[in-house]
Structure formats: structure tokens, C-alpha cells
Amino acid sequence: MSGDPEQEYFADGMVEEIITALSRIRWLFVIARNSTLGYKRRGVDVKQVGRELGVRYVLEGSVRKASGRVRITAQLIDAASGAHLWADRFDGSLEDVFELQDKVAVSVAGVIEPALQAAEMRRSAARPTTDLGAYDLYLRALVVLFPIAKERMADALVLVEQAIAIDRHYGPALSVAAICHMMLVRDGWTEEPEKSRHKAIDLARRALAVGENDPRILADAALVLAHFGEDIGAMMALVDRALALNPSFARGWNLSGGLRLWSGQPDLAIDHLETALRLSPREPVGAPLSLIGGAYFFKRQFDDAAAKLVLSIQDHPGYPPAYRYLAACYAHMGRLDEARAVLDRLRTITALIVPSDLPWRNPEHRELLLSGLRLAAGERT
After folding, report:
1. Domain ranges in the chain with CATH number 1.25.40.10
2. 147 preceded by cis ω (within 30°)?
3. pLDDT at residue 160, as a whole number
4. Regarding the domain with residue range 127-247, which homologous superfamily does it belong to in the CATH classification?
């Protein structure tokens, strides 16, 4: 913003870093640096930019440097309507300029991906139901999937099954269908758990066969297969690969945290889950607070666990795992009346109090949860 050539070079470098980070998001079409830099300092209308470049969204921003500090502002705009979808600023020290550029680029990409996907989901939901392809059905499924609840899960599954009927090799729909069947089994929401278990595993493997370089497919399939007993180390490696392909992938960090929790690494789980929350503080990427609460539970930090789990239930009142953790947590704290009250709420959501599959590989962690649930259930076990 100063006209100083040295600062202009820094701004151009920042643009290139952000474009590189955004380009790692496979479902985004991102215009290259040389085309976008032509609009620098011209003050052009965003709608005009959208028409000339053939894009739906424009990210614009500025860089200001002073006294060894830098402030980068950015805002995401719908090119068709001119509506602002997201805005933020980033401050840092210039002591390590390349580390700062990388940090800002990853942060911008991390918050933009869910914001853009939410905008695309709204766009798809507004389209006539007679004008739907596999991609639109997939987006509509994501709209209804959160907050998690039995009825929403069933509706999402219908939509992705319709997408798969259109394109049986459509990896994103295959992986979301696998997730849906996994949750139907886990949460006791199916009368045919064995059938859903086999479907989940088959869909996850089919998704991997067609989407070996798609971060979402890798992460979703890894979670499903790990839940049903696949080698946890191999599944964590799949999620690590997803994050190498897109380090800004908030859902990937969330699922990575879940796998670390299942593998018996609660501290690393908390670290990965907090990364997911930093990258996507407003858009849903799963139920990270429930998993963070579970990690504190296994660390026997019951007060911290209960605080996170209560917040998780507020965000996702239809999500059974948070109730199981919280009931066990209260029971181990000696708060048996509260534990039983949580189980009573859980019974309104599912008849499956103890999960049929136990994905926690650490036997002490499994017993801590199960013993807590037994305490909470009392004579009703």
C-alpha cells in the first residue's frame, strides 16, 4: 500500500504463496499469478474480474509493512453478487519473512476452503431440483449432514446414493456414503448393522480406488476403515498423505485427531484437533470438541473433558459419542446423578449405549470408557 518497490515485491510473493496454497485444494479452480497480478492497483470492479477470468469468487487483499511488522488483510467476495463471504487480517514479525508468508498462506487457504464450500452448498441448494448432477447432489448431502442427527444422516445418504447412481466412480460421494454407513452402525441408527458395516467398508475401498490423490477421500476412507479394524498405523499414514497434499485441509486435521485418539495418542490428538479449529473456526468440519473432550477424558483430566463435551453437545445435540464420553466422565468424577441424566438424554437419540465397535486400540482407554458407562448405567446395564 506504500508504493515502495521493495514492499511491492513482498506483496507479489505473498500473492504467489496464497495461490500455491489454494491450488492444493483439488476441487478449486485457481487462476494463476500472472493473470491475477494484472489487476494490481487498478481498483477494478470485482464483478468485472469475475467475468474476465471466468471465476465465481475473488480473493483480494493488501499488505502493509512498518517497523519490522507486517499486516496482511484479505477478503473473499462472490463475483456474481459482490457479497462479502469472509474477511480477516494477519499480523506478524518480519524476522523470518518466508515462514510468515507460508503461515499466512496456509491460514488463508484453511479458512477459505470451508467458506467456499459453504457458499457452493448454498448455491446448489438454491438450484431447481430438476437440474442436479452428481456434484450438486454431493453438495446437498453436505448441507444436511451437519449438525449430525439420525434424520439428517439418512437424508444425506439418500443424496449421495443418488450421486453414485449417476456416476458410480464419483469418489467424493463414495467416501461420504461410507462415512454415513459407518455412523449408522456406530450410533445404532440402522436395523441392519452388518449390512451397513459391509457397505461402509466397500464404499471406502471403492473411493480410495478412484481418489488416491484426493485429500477428502483419503481422510474419510481412512476413518471408516480404521473404525472397522483396519491397521491404525496404515490409516494414519493415509491421513498424513492427505495433509501433505493439502496442509490447509481442516477436516483432514480433524479426522487425523480422531485417528490419533483411537491409536492411544491423546496429546497429539488434541494438537491436530486444535489445528482443525484454527483453520476452520466457523464452518463445520465434524465434531472436534467431542474428540478433544475424549482426549482429555483418556488423560483423566475430567474437568477439562466435561467442559469440552458440554460445548460439543450444544453444537451437535444429536451426536451420540459426546454423550457417551460425558456420561463416563461424570461417573468417574462421582457425579452419578448427572451421568445418569446424560444417559437418559442419550437414550432419546439411540438405544445403543455401548458402541458395537470399539475403535480405541489402547485397552486402558477402552476400559476407562466402558467402566464409566457401566457406572453411569448402574442397575440398568
Report:
1. 127-247, 284-381
2. yes
3. 94
4. Tetratricopeptide repeat domain (1.25.40.10)
Sequence-distant (≥ 6) Cβ neighbours of residue 180 within 8 angstroms: 145, 153, 156, 157, 160
The per-residue pLDDT for 49 is 86
CA distance 208 to 215: 10
State the Cα–Cα distance between residues 156 and 137, nearest whole angstrom.
9
Contact 153, 180 (CB under 8 A): yes
CATH classification for the domain delimited by 284-381, as one of 3.40.50.1400, 3.40.50.1000, 1.25.40.10, 1.10.3720.10: 1.25.40.10
pLDDT of residue 380: 46
Question: What residue has cell string 493415509?
Answer: 238
Nearest of 192, 186, 195, 210 to residue 258 by alpha carbon: 186
Show the cell assigned to 35. Answer: 493473470
Helices (H) and strands (E) counted in the chain, each on its own, are 17, 3
- As to burial, measured by CB atoms within 10 angstroms (0-12 exposed, 13-18 middle, 19+ buried), residue 25 is buried
CA–CA distance, 153 with 228 (Å, rounded to integer): 19
Per-residue confidence (pLDDT) for residue 381, from 0 to 100: 41
| 244 contacts: CB under 8 Å, gap ≥ 6 | none
| Burial grade of 119 (CB within 10 A; 0-12, 13-18, 19 or more) | middle
DSSP state of 286: S
CATH number for 5-125: choose from 3.40.390, 3.30.1360, 1.10.238, 3.40.50. 3.40.50
**Nearest of 222, 192, 190, 227 to residue 205 by alpha carbon:** 222
Q: Are 369 and 360 in contact (CB under 8 A)?
A: yes
Q: Report the pLDDT value the prediction gives residue 128, as an integer from 0 to 100.
A: 55
In which residue ranges of the chain is pLDDT below 50? 380-381
